[in-house]
Specification:
Layout (H helix, E strand, L loop, with lengths): L7 E7 L1 E8 L5 E9 L3 E7 L19 E5 L11 E3 L11 E9 L2 E8 L7
Antiparallel strand pairs: 1-4, 1-6, 2-3, 4-5, 5-8, 6-7, 7-8
Length: 122
Amino acid sequence: MQNLARNMSTVWYQVYTGQTEILDADGNKTGSFQDTYGPLQSAPLMVSPNKGDATLELFGTLLDYDRTMATADTTLPIDEQTILWLDGADTSGPYTHYVKQRAPWKNSLVFAVKQVEVTQGG
């Protein structure tokens, strides 16, 4: 599989790096944690339109996902904990999608993607 340039979209993403403990106003540990992500990166990927007919679903009908993304770059670090900004979403705002499943193959990667609504505070 080669990436056909006219089918590519720029996808912005951040890879999950772990959790950090939340500190209160005095710098004391609260016992609560928040997810942390690496730097904002972009990659050209083929992004499908919204999910359609179940007979054509790459990940079957049991996995709840909205779209798929594919690339011939098998070194892409995107995994199941990666957050995404699709369709030209503003990267200074909350992310719009996350990866539900990663499916590597000999010369390609395919991802099942789920849309979310995240508020700036959450």
